[in-house]
Amino acid sequence: MAERNKNIYKRQLISFNPNFRIDTANPQMGLSGTDVYKIYGVTDNGDNQSSISLSSGGLFSVYNDHTIQISGGSKNEEGREDVVIIGNNGNVSISANGMIRLYATNIMVEAEEDIHFKAGRNVIMKSGAGRILIDGEKVDIKGTSGNMPSLLGIDFTKRIFEGSFVGIDFIDNAVGGIVKNVVSTVIDSVL
Amino acid sequence: MIDESLLKSNFIGRDGFRWWIGQIPPISAMGGQVDGEGWGNRFKVRILGYHPYSEAELPNEDLPWAQCLIPTTAGSGAANVSTGVQLQPGDTVLGFFLDGDNAQIPVILATFGRSFSVPSTTYQSPFVPFTGYSSKVEKAKVTPNQTNEQREDSNPSPVSATQEQADAISQKVGYQVFSENFAIGNKIPLANTTKNTRIDKIQSIVKNVIRKVRNLQGDIEKIRQVIRQAADKIVTLCNDLIGGMFNFLIDYLIDLLKKGLDLLYKLVYAQVLAATGNPVVAHLAGVAAQEAMVLPVKALEEAFGCIAGEAIEIMKDLVYDILDSTVGNVERFVSCAADQFAGTLLNSIIGILEGLFEGPLGAVANLLQFFSDFNLGNILRESIGILSEFGAAFACNQSLDNYKGLVNEWTVGGGPSGSVSTLATSLVGAYTNIRDITNTINSGVEGITECFTGALQFASPPVINIFGGRGSGATAIPIFGNLVTNPDGNVTASIIGVQLTNPGSGYTFPPFIEIVDDNDQGYGAVARSIINSNGEVESIYMVSEGENYSIGNIAEFSVLKVLVEEGGSGYDDLTTVITDDLGNEYDYQIVDGRIYQVTPLNNIVNSLPKLSIESDNGFGAILRPVVGALKESGNIPASPDATSVNLFSQEVQVSIDCPT
Prior knowledge:
Largest sheet of chain A: 6 strands, antiparallel
Radius of gyration of chain A: 30 Å
Number of helices of chain A: 4
Number of helices of chain B: 12
Oligomer: heterodimer
Largest interface: A-B, 84 and 111 residues
Order of helices and strands of chain A: EEEEEEHHHH
Mean pLDDT of chain B: 82
Largest sheet of chain B: 6 strands, mixed
Helix content of chain A: 10-25%
């Protein structure tokens, strides 16, 4: 059986210097196939590589070891689209190891179907001079503790005592009154 | 004496045209010309047959300047059309004299490309080839090969592969190859709120940190930093994991404590009734017993919020220790290293939570006394397998189809990866013993090394993972070709086709075809699928065959069919011929100038054929060969056959223990 056929003849390389080159049809295999083309640059000390490439597998990649900056619209009038990112048929996925920060005068998020907010720790919504409006055909709140679950009687304690001989008033008085301090003491003692 | 000028026209070419070949001397001879203080594009040049071989007779600094002619495609600079001259010291150049036999005004016309026969050492003496690198153009992070030949190893570029794969290529080809970017190969989790991908995300971090650490090649300080950063990230993800466990635990406890309250009432009622014979007193005693549980229950409720934060704090150092041990014991990446880490982590979390809940649950012991089989650890383990997401929160009759088959993970430079989160429960079960090991770490006793090393494993062939497309059930196996015997004797191959073993069902768009190489050795194979109107996967074709995969099935295969992705235009029956680069011919059908159908003529192949269409006027057709086993040859073994085992069984690689 033969080794993979490598078309060396088709390769065209322009290497301007050790720091920059344009390589086309290089038969060297990469993760997503061979390179259709690659534009590659590296700083003198090798600290920063950057490249733009298209693979035979169809992946167009842009890499940079440090910051990639996209800036548009410095001569646009207000209200024009300065930067547009389009996913024509599928999804647009953005992942960051740190934070994804959005800052603008106004931020609009619109979905044809659903909007999901999920956090591993806290979800915090705060409005300044305006209001927070939750408006839906059906609005549900689920929680174990806090003022809303307590008010709705769906907090952990009330759900447990629901159907028992202990009334909600007793629970509220016990927890909200003097006994609240006792609860804190109990918590401190067990943790 | 007749003036010489009277005998000459002093026009180039009319008084004789003198060619020459010469060499550009070291850059030190160029003076201010290379510091931007000269004019034109000029180089000193030592010309064969005109200038001596000795610097003592004619120093490099005293050589004549030669101007460079620029090709018509380069531009003179006029109208901002310009391409810089790219000559370097040591280059052998061809030129002519503007002044004919006077030979005082040389012009450089072209340069000879450097072949592998040309030495690229430091400058020794005139006319001896030497390196083009100089104080003005120093080596960078590109293979310092200074040749310009039509060869694979001529001026190689950085590759779009991981640094480990680049190192493997280096060993194979005999020169250093660099990775285009350190991020290549990293696993990047993508947002998914409708599916439990917590474990996937943690495993991604572990895979990435193992890769990063290997790239750091023993730089202890940076390795510690990378492990610390990864540990911090994993601890952050534990928030979500613990939150998910708590959701399950809370629902479980509510049911349990509710029953406990009822049983407590009945117990007290019965005891007081027996003692007093008064049902009213017995009832009041029962109620009092229930009321007495309000504070402990409330304390438990409050504890949930505090315990999560407390557990995270405890885990910070613990996760670092586990990760450090994992990294330290993995010599070669295998996915089960990430599995093992995840299993260890989950059991550690469970262990920590058991400890932290001891107090708050002890306060409600009066309610739990009725459930002798109550075991917090088991409940938390149970919770891991069924951590729910937003799916349950949708309104009735609303479809979740849009969220099926989402890509959970992206491999930088590679593409989408499927999810393995269903393994979460099995991970916890498989690594229950690891919890003890983490305990030994806490107590400062070395133990994890013994548990994570020692097992030997053969390199296994890659597997095909079909996911997405909103369907399920499709399976396939890879077909190998282009076998290569590497310098170490290990035989590797390309994937020239994918044999569909189960078409699955329910697909509404073509699913992803992921080629998973647990050894992280092979790379570059890319496949795509097409589905039929029944929602089944109909075919899988290769876009790129890749290389360096451990081999499995190497039986005889053929081109089963050819998919016409684009029919093109202008084709005709008279001048069109379809062949492949293996010498096979194909039958075809043309309708309205478009290639409508292509039929292979029982073409046996051992590599992925590249189809070409000869046609006088046609263009634009795209054909995709589908390689598979001939129908008459029966089933293809899913595991390596005897022949292939012999080929790769000599390679024994150290790995960590993996669950079976």
